[in-house]
Design brief:
The structure is a homodimer of 113-residue chains.
Chain A: H1 5-8, H2 12-22, E1 25-26, H3 27-37, H4 46-58, E2 62-66, E3 76-80, H5 82-105
Antiparallel strand pairs in A: 1-3, 2-3
Helix pairs in contact in A: 2-5
The structure holds a DNA duplex (30 and 30 nucleotides).
Chain lengths: 113, 113
DNA sequence: CGACATACCTTGACAGATGAGGTATCTTGT
DNA sequence: ACAAGATACCTCATCTGTCAAGGTATGTCG
């Protein structure tokens, strides 16, 4: 794991919402997807993931339901709500603004000082 | 303050080091500089700033000395050490990697996937 | 003389992340 | 038949960075 998790702190919710924008999903799958999409450089810890689900559900950004798997372990699916989509849009633009500011403050070779 | 501080969490040390790369400085000045360079969209809280100074000094990344102001409030200057410069370089590249991954995970329409 | 800027610092509390632990099912190799 | 590992869920105690709130002191301006 080459990415310091502390640097991603605070982006967990947006990352999960981003995944659920496309389709309903469940914890284990979301985790593996994040691992894959980050080229194995970042992995959400399970405890972090389930803490985030709780937080997002309490906020009304996602709702959950049990899958009807006939075989294998049961899956708890999550679905993003309209409020969740709004929150995602907002968090995405916040990320872009934050990214911009950090770039400036770190002197990431920015000539437009 | 339009930028959620929690999103910048973890970048405080790098931001301070980045400032000290150019010249020795003191707390109050660094804070104002950050405010200005972020177009007043982000401000380090004093408690956060002094906590960070303590952390950086303990780590050997910065050293401090009192200025010899004849008038006005005394100033405590900080100077970056060679180890601090190394740490800054490392943290800068970590930021670039993290930025890249968050962009991917948030689906920030990145064509170079 | 009061307000405000400059300049430093500490303490207690909060929130997100996480190591470590737990439960249960199914598959694959030996 | 059995062990190992993947799939799949969850909780709790602890750690760390942030920050509101409080404090001290000096200089300037109206």
């Amino acid at each position: 794991m080459s990415i310091a998790a502390d640097l991603i702190r605070g982006h967990t919710d947006a990352i999960i919402l981003s995944h659920l924008i496309h389709r309903d999903s469940y914890g284990y799958e979301i985790n593996k997807s994040i691992l894959g999409r980050s080229d194995h450089r970042y992995e959400l810890k399970e405890a972090t993931l389930y803490t985030a689900f709780k937080r997002l559900e309490d906020a009304g950004y996602i709702v959950s339901y049990w899958g009807d798997e006939k075989v294998g372990a049961r899956r708890k699916y999550y679905s993003i709500t309209p409020a969740g989509r709004e929150a995602y849009e907002k968090q995405l633009s916040e990320w872009l603004a934050t990214r911009n500011i950090i770039d400036k403050l770190l002197g990431t070779e920015d000539s437009t000082l």
